Amino acid sequence: MGERREIQLTVNGEAVSREVEVRWTLVDFLRHELMLTGTHVGCEHGVCGACTVLLDGRSARSCLTLAVQADGCDVTTIEGLSPKEGLSPLQQAFADHHGLQCGYCTPGVLCTLTEFLETNADPSEEEIRIALSGNLCRCTGYQGMVDAALAYVAARKSQLA
Asked: Do 54 and 38 touch, CB atoms closer than 8 A?
């Protein structure tokens, strides 16, 4: 067994304190220690985006982040994006606009879009496509994801009007 260190962080709004091996990645910690299996492991090189989570509100590749690097941070996974009952408005837009197929990339895509749409309230289709460019999907062709994001933005704007 390797060197271990105590970490304290907030995951999906709950305080977590655990002793971890310093070599553990954040994705392995989330999946195997906390049993939050919505964050997926894809390429393990930070290329595909399947492991994307929010780290202090910013999207981060949890396969490239060590669990000890998240000490003191606020981590939000796909499980933390959903309300207690049902889906978040962005998740519902994905369901309504066929923004997912197999679903493997979807948690990372939703985390990426959550950060992006917090910082850009009225993005163009091109800006959404650029935001999604770091998330690889072999099933959808991305159009449904873009349509879902645009529908979410339109619904949010109509609520504010």
From this structure: no
